[in-house]
């Protein structure tokens, strides 16, 4: 294998070895029978993900898939890579340890809306706050599927389930708003059945250096069937707002409507382009350091009554990563590896720290 150090390699994969020979999708598929319910959106995501990895050019021995608990967390079994089916909500914590200790690995976290945002919420936000070089893929079906249909942190208010027979009274999380609030440097959303767009988003997420968070709308045909029907089929273009950096934020297949800022309230809204003029349509800037615009876009979909929702890359900015800085500190504390005296002096200085002093008689 060839070590990836050339400038043309994506920053997120710098240091990850290339495959000796070009790989194909089947090279990343394991020999395990895929066992999800018929019609589950997980199949489409798995197939798309397996197709993206060969295009990244990395060796399969240097890809790691770590999951928590849930239907989506079967993922590592179906990948012919290294991986771990870990414990509930802790996949980001385990993945952080892998990323810090092994810069030669591309680390992917597979999680669901319940696993990530309920018991795993604390681990998720701190991974994003630290900007660990991870790609976190969150399957959002707005339900607990593995435990047979309880409402989840993303279920809409009023959702009738086995655990909320009179309707959920919880206010749902907006996953993208959570990620943006935690300072995540790459935030995106895609739909399970739109394989072309999903592949583009996953590719960009893997190439980004830092924490990449991708929310994927994923249909659960058993316990929450049709939750995202508005975003699929012939009418999908009327409900999706496709974000493209540097392009006007338009709605509809013909682009006849656009996202504008209301001159009185200052809020984002959708208006007819013919009435307001293209000059007033918001132009998307995913590289903007201030996350406020991405935060506003994330709230265009109120999460209750779905009409229009943005998909694509909301934020893609550069900032120092936790694992790069941690390794730099270890190197600094270790001294010159070729000089034993330097290493001993560095260790002594580390042990003494800044709170020691010498008393002379």
Automatic annotation (TrEMBL):
Enzyme type, top EC level: oxidoreductase
Keyword Oxidoreductase: yes
UniProt EC number: 1.2.7.3
Keyword set, alphabetical order: Oxidoreductase
GO biological process terms held by the UniProt record: cellular respiration
One Pfam family matching this protein: TPP_enzyme_C
UniProt keyword Oxidoreductase present: yes
GO molecular function list: 2-oxoglutarate synthase activity; magnesium ion binding; thiamine pyrophosphate binding
InterPro entries: 2-oxoacid:Fd_oxidoreductase, THDP-binding, TPP_enzyme_TPP-bd
Domain Thiamine pyrophosphate enzyme TPP-binding residue range list: 69-215
Name the record gives this protein: 2-oxoglutarate:acceptor oxidoreductase subunit OorB
């Amino acid at each position: 294998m060839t070590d990836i150090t050339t400038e043309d390699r994506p920053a997120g994969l710098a240091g990850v070895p290339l495959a000796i020979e070009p790989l194909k999708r089947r090279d990343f598929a394991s020999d395990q029978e895929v066992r999800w319910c018929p019609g589950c959106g997980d199949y489409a995501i798995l197939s798309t993900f397996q197709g993206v990895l060969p295009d990244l050019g990395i060796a399969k021995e240097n890809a790691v898939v770590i999951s928590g608990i849930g239907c989506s967390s079967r993922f590592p079994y179906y990948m012919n890579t290294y991986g771990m089916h870990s414990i509930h909500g802790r996949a980001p914590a385990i993945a952080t340890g892998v990323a810090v200790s092994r810069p030669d690995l591309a680390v992917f976290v597979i999680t669901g809306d319940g696993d990530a945002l309920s018991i795993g919420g604390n681990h998720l936000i701190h991974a994003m706050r630290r900007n660990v070089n991870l790609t976190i893929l969150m399957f959002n079906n707005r339900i607990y599927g593995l435990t047979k249909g309880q409402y989840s942190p993303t279920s809409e208010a009023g959702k009738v389930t086995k655990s909320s027979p009179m309707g959920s009274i919880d206010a749902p999380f907006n996953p993208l708003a959570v990620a943006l609030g935690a300072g995540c440097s790459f935030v995106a959303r895609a739909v399970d059945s739109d394989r072309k767009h999903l592949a583009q988003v996953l590719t960009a997420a893997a190439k980004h250096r830092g924490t990449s968070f991708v929310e994927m709308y994923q249909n659960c045909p058993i316990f929450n069937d049709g939750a995202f029907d508005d975003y699929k089929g012939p009418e999908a273009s009327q409900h999706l707002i496709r974000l493209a950096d540097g392009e006007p934020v338009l709605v509809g297949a013909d682009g006849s409507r656009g996202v504008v800022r209301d001159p009185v309230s200052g809020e984002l809204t959708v208006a007819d382009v013919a009435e307001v003029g293209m000059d007033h349509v918001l132009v998307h800037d995913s590289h903007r350091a201030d996350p406020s615009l991405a935060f506003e876009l994330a709230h265009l979909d109120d999460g209750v009554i779905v009409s229009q929702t943005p998909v694509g890359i909301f934020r893609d900015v550069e900032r120092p990563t936790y694992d790069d800085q941690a390794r730099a500190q270890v190197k600094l504390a270790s001294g010159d590896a070729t000089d034993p005296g330097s290493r001993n002096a560095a260790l002594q200085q580390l042990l003494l720290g800044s709170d020691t002093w010498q008393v002379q008689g």
